[in-house]
Specification:
By secondary structure, the protein is α+β, with helices and mostly antiparallel strands. It folds into two domains: 72 residues, no CATH class; 100 residues, Alpha-Beta Complex (Aspartate Aminotransferase, domain 1). The chain has seven helices and six strands. A four-stranded antiparallel β-sheet has the order 3-4-6-5. A two-stranded antiparallel sheet has the order 1-2. Helix 4 runs parallel beside helix 7 and helix 6 crosses helix 7. The longest helix has 19 residues.
């Protein structure tokens, strides 16, 4: 993503997903000329200050997760964004290609890396996606997320750089057994 001059960017609380940072951590980037003009959600005594630290007035909190963000960014930079993207897409294609052979399996994603990279969603004809996710977890110890929202009715699978093909082989085997039941 290219950062545009004069824009405010907020990188949500999902740093744990892509940077392996602790849960609940987030990041906000504000271009220097906009700091003074941007009002913090929880203002201190100088909400129009040009000091970026005005956004840190959050009260008592644990500093350990915040300190770990830097380590997570270092880890990401050591791998490199391009290599990380390639690895994540490879892992998605690995499990998708394997279960695609089952005629009951339907995908709800693109296989193109620019559209879904690591994220994959699937369903099994005739089965509730909540039941699929429950069976994967209770029967095989595999955590997935069932999504039933608007036009999405699928199980979300999100491997990460540390996921091994052996882990995915267990997942593939579990999906095949569930689809056969």
């Amino acid at each position: 993503m290219a950062l545009l001059p004069g824009e405010l960017y907020y990188f949500g609380t999902s740093l744990h997903k892509w940077l392996c940072a602790p849960f609940g951590t987030g990041l906000m980037y504000v271009r220097k000329p906009l700091i003074e003009k941007t009002w913090p959600i929880f203002p201190n005594d100088k909400p129009l200050s040009p000091d970026i630290r005005k956004f840190e007035a959050l009260g008592t909190r644990s500093f350990a997760p915040e300190q770990a963000i830097g380590q997570a960014i270092d880890f990401h930079n050591a791998i490199g964004g391009k290599r990380k993207q390639e690895r994540l897409h490879y892992l998605k294609l690995y499990w998708c290609d394997a279960i695609a052979k089952n005629p009951r399996v339907k995908f709800h994603i693109s296989m193109k890396p620019e559209y879904s990279c690591a994220l994959g969603t699937f369903s099994i004809d005739g089965m509730d996606v909540g039941d699929i996710a429950t069976k994967l977890f209770s029967g095989y110890g595999i955590h997935t997320v069932s999504i039933k929202w608007e036009n999405v009715n699928a199980v979300r699978v999100t491997p990460h750089v540390y996921t091994t093909t052996k882990d995915l082989d267990r997942f593939i085997d579990a999906v095949e057994k569930i689809a056969a039941s």
